[in-house]
Amino acid sequence: MSKAEKLLRTRAPALDEILGVPLKTLDDGFVRVVDYMGSDESVVQAARVSYGEGTKKVSEDRGLIRYLLRHQHTTPFEMCELKLHVRVPMDCWRQWIRHRMSSVNEYSTRYSVAIDAAQKTAPDAWRMQSADNKQGSSGALVPAEGERLTRREAEVHKACRDAYAERLEAGVAREQARKDLPLSTYTEAYWKTDLHNLLRFLQLRMAPNAQQEIRGYATLIGHEIVRRWCPLTWEAFLDYRMGGVALSRLETEMVARIARGELAAAEALAQRAGWAKGKNRERAEFDEKLKTLGLKAPWS
Amino acid sequence: MSKAEKLLRTRAPALDEILGVPLKTLDDGFVRVVDYMGSDESVVQAARVSYGEGTKKVSEDRGLIRYLLRHQHTTPFEMCELKLHVRVPMDCWRQWIRHRMSSVNEYSTRYSVAIDAAQKTAPDAWRMQSADNKQGSSGALVPAEGERLTRREAEVHKACRDAYAERLEAGVAREQARKDLPLSTYTEAYWKTDLHNLLRFLQLRMAPNAQQEIRGYATLIGHEIVRRWCPLTWEAFLDYRMGGVALSRLETEMVARIARGELAAAEALAQRAGWAKGKNRERAEFDEKLKTLGLKAPWS
Amino acid sequence: MSKAEKLLRTRAPALDEILGVPLKTLDDGFVRVVDYMGSDESVVQAARVSYGEGTKKVSEDRGLIRYLLRHQHTTPFEMCELKLHVRVPMDCWRQWIRHRMSSVNEYSTRYSVAIDAAQKTAPDAWRMQSADNKQGSSGALVPAEGERLTRREAEVHKACRDAYAERLEAGVAREQARKDLPLSTYTEAYWKTDLHNLLRFLQLRMAPNAQQEIRGYATLIGHEIVRRWCPLTWEAFLDYRMGGVALSRLETEMVARIARGELAAAEALAQRAGWAKGKNRERAEFDEKLKTLGLKAPWS
Amino acid sequence: MSKAEKLLRTRAPALDEILGVPLKTLDDGFVRVVDYMGSDESVVQAARVSYGEGTKKVSEDRGLIRYLLRHQHTTPFEMCELKLHVRVPMDCWRQWIRHRMSSVNEYSTRYSVAIDAAQKTAPDAWRMQSADNKQGSSGALVPAEGERLTRREAEVHKACRDAYAERLEAGVAREQARKDLPLSTYTEAYWKTDLHNLLRFLQLRMAPNAQQEIRGYATLIGHEIVRRWCPLTWEAFLDYRMGGVALSRLETEMVARIARGELAAAEALAQRAGWAKGKNRERAEFDEKLKTLGLKAPWS
């Protein structure tokens, strides 16, 4: 590793342009970049220390980054850090904070009066319980119902906030007065994590089965921030982590049989695996994969 | 390290006796031990691998554990694991979950209807905002006020729960319907951590400036669980982490001056450190320490 | 969650049978289970807390565990802990210790005289540098060469050990005397990690491109220990993590084209992706995947 | 939190001046800053989000940083990141890598030929085994002995390197050929960690009982890098973490007795604590503390 040259900190000029600018989501939420360290270049540099090699042509960086991501060589991506300032409903923050490999400083409602804002739902934004996904939603409520629920929501917000104000006025400690604020109350925080852990966050929270609210934040972070910050990593991430299909050992073998037209053999494999004709989640998921791959299940 | 003998898993018989038993706190919360690994003995065993030595007399274990804790040799304490099932208001859980070095599986209100219980406050349990600690409380509200706030609390709980029920009935997805539940709503979780990180949790959450609610949980875990599980570690923890006084380099020098009666020299040190006669938090804290140590500040 | 019943700690009877028994590898290495917490049952229990549901039929546990692993719901696997006592050459330990999510207490060569054993290589066990993998090996050296190198290895071991002994005899501190011990010197440690992180370790270290020495340890831990401890998880791990094929978004689309016989369209996709006819690692890897799936590349 | 202003990344101009410059230690080691994020200002900013307050006068930053460090409010310090390029003997690296909360990319001796340098010891730099500290050293060997050991060291280095070269020449895979390199062989790595974890590293590795080699690196990082980067944090760190005295609950009570001249009561406490007249490590350490504090033990 050459060490003669004077160093400058790595920069991501496209990200510098939006430094500090709040990117809005929900009725009153935002995400903004406060600081960062590194760029695509730092990922490449860290990977190359393994080889004892110096900088190469930019054209080779793309190939290396794709290789690293494809083969889950994750440590070079840890060399980049992103620090955000976020404003988010506590309900959504409960999911966010589950990502442990991060650093957090949150607005304190012990120390200060709670932020006077709760996330509001537009009449046409009430989502129906999904019939086939116990933890999801699908479709929207009819307008009249939505109007009614939105009015009731405003009443509940007012009732909670009034009770909070009443307690504070009576001299109750902030740490206790806050206990009945609704989960929709906005909080703010600095949130810092490295690129590897950020990609993991995005993979889970941009996924179709993530809850819509956090998916909005994750999508902003991905498409507006990471894309500007580390464009090569972002492209590789979309290719390898967000699209695509993963086949298990058994599924791989079955695809091979089906592709070669050995349908009976494929069906025998399914039998042996306990994929009875009845309801079986593994088989149902495999059927979906086959469809995506342009192949037909032997049992359909 | 001898490796001939057949091993049995380490056991803590005193802890086995309360395995699965809910220890109650708050109006409807609990903590119960679901499983554990290791004991004081495991701490000692891990420490001794460094020396390439085998088991010793029990009487020496106490000395070794105290030595490890005193000198912050923390890794041997990581060899013990505790897994709890807890029921706790979300408000309190927000503080709990900040301890990242732990494993968590929480009851999902996306998947299931929220637990129908919110933490209630007795009329005599409303705490006043502390005058000198911006994030604390001290003293209780007068009874009449307390009665009123408790009645209002019940109304707010009912309003929130009714709105939740109404949404569910209208077919709104659980993940969205829950958004205005009060922070006082109970949740349940499995929470697992190692003894080192548990002690860190207890040190912060049993401290006098921790919020009363989580202090109740932490105190239960410490006095009822860790005491039974790892009695030698628990004793050392109380001695070295929960009591005692830590003096900075400057404070150490000043104590030495004061103890030797060199009051002018001590005061000169304070001057040089910028501890002006006026309001200074560092000096105020030092005054407290001197009092605890039975010494008199030269400026008092 | 029901909480009436008296609890017993979860047990894995098949693992209890080998508790403390050293499983040998290399010329003088071993792995033995010292303690553990949890079992397949604990994974299931943790997952079900999300649903607020109690225990189910054993037959459903398998399906749930497979689902969790397939969809990367990793937190329930963190509820199980394994503690090993290992004896391993420092060279190999250098790779092992890179897995940060673990707890470690290692034999100290500052405190004690270094273990008097270095890993020896049999004459037929010298591996040739791989031609196509810069960090791998393939094939064995010719016997005569192997004999020579093994003799030289013994001389080097003796030279290092003699120098070490000489220093100790001269009164040099152990912490300094050890500095020229060969990397092949054996060390011992307690190593503890949870099942999720253990599976990650096994996935990387049982892989064909892992170095043979650590692959030996990982294979022992997987096939002899995890298989006995959590048989359902082990089966699912082999199916979903160790076999199978992962296709990127682009590869998925190309497979679909090829499966439908739209070869020109597939080739156009490859062109657009920059997979020129020449040497391209991504295309070469894709060709391998196609072969596994029983499909033919349009360009072959 | 105001969010109107356009942001620039935080800078530490004094650190920028030595960016990329190798700071030398040992015969052939170095540390150099490759990149960083944040500064004292970022610590303050993160702490203030808790209060919902904006920037204050610089003069108040010092007080806040000292408060945070004194009271172990560690999360704001996680907001700063430092990335180093280090060259260090593997022996020393074995200690370094134990700090898990960091990101690492190391030079690979599977992929490339090992760095052709091993740490050499000058004739006057051989340290004697400490008599009273089983894991320490004290004093130097007599010159004649030192000369001899240094000559032998060169022979051992040559023997190991020759064997390595011989294996490579015979076609042995690099991953296997390296197995008998001495622990003193230099390696290089990128090492990145946050300021909180860096301070923990420095506290342990700058301590008098840390091994001299790593103490050299830690001292460079502290005095040459952190001092330039975050001068207020560095000053507070030296005051609160590197100097000073920590008294246990019992010790605090005994100091109070001694300070008030109640010597018999102090001695009774010691008796009750089991500090018999004989050899007792806790009492011996307390005697040292008393001496530092300018107080006399009642039993002396």
Mean pLDDT figure of chain A: 93
Spell out the helices and strands of chain A N to C. HEEHHEHEEEHHEHHHEHHH
Q: Spans of chain A with pLDDT under 50 lasting ≥5 residues?
A: none
The radius of gyration computed from the alpha-carbon positions of chain A, rounded to a whole number of angstroms, is 25 Å
Shape, per Cα inertia axes of chain A: flat
Largest sheet of chain A: 5 strands, antiparallel
User: Which percent range fits the helix content of chain A?
Assistant: 40-55%
The level 1 CATH classification of the largest domain in chain A is: Alpha Beta
**Largest binding interface between chains:** A-B, 55 and 56 residues
β-strand number of chain A: 8
Strand order of the largest sheet of chain A: 1-2-3-7-4
CATH fold type of the largest domain in chain A: Gyrase A, domain 2
Q: Please, how many domains of chain A?
A: 3
Number of helices of chain A: 12
How far is it from the N-terminal to the C-terminal residue of chain A, by CA?
A: 59 Å
Structural class of chain A: alpha+beta
Q: CATH architecture of the largest domain in chain A, please?
A: 2-Layer Sandwich
Oligomer: homotetramer
Q: Beta fraction of the residues of chain A? A: 5-15%
Q: Can you characterise this structure?
A:
- 4 copies of one chain form a homotetramer.
- With 300 residues, chain A is an alpha+beta fold.
- Chain A folds into 3 domains: 13-112 and 186-242, Gyrase A, domain 2 (2-Layer Sandwich), CATH 3.30.1360.170; 123-180; 249-292, no CATH class.
- Chain A is built from 12 helices and 8 strands.
- In chain A, strands 1-2-3-7-4 form a 5-stranded antiparallel beta sheet.
- In chain A, strand 1 (23-25) and strand 2 (29-37) form a beta hairpin.
- In chain A, helix 3 packs parallel to helix 9 (231-242) and helix 8 crosses helix 9 (231-242).
- Chain A is flat, with a radius of gyration of 25 Å.
- Chains A and D meet through strand 2, helix 2, strand 3, strand 4 and strand 7 of A and strand 2, helix 2, strand 3, strand 4 and strand 7 of D.
- Strand 8 (245-247) of chain A pairs antiparallel with strand 8 of chain C.
